[in-house]
Amino acid sequence: MAPALELRQISKRWADGRPALQAVDLCVQPGEFVVLVGPSGCGKSTLLRVIAGLEQADSGELLLHGQPANHTPPDQRGLAMVFQSYALYPHMTVAQNLAFPLKMAGRSKHDIAQRVAEVAQILQIEDLLTRKPAALSGGQRQRVAIGRALTRAPGILLFDEPLSNLDAALREQMRIELARLHQQTGATIIYVTHDQVEAMTLGQRIAVLQGGQIAQCASARELYQQPVNRFVAGFLGTPQMNFAPAALFPWLQPPAGAQELGVRAEHLRLLAPDSEQDGLPVRLAHGEYLGDCCQIYVQHAASQSRFCLRSKDDWQTMPPQGKLVPEAAHCHFFDAAGRRLVSSS
Ligand code: ADP
Ligand code: MG
Question: Whole-model pTM?
Answer without folding.
Answer: 0.92
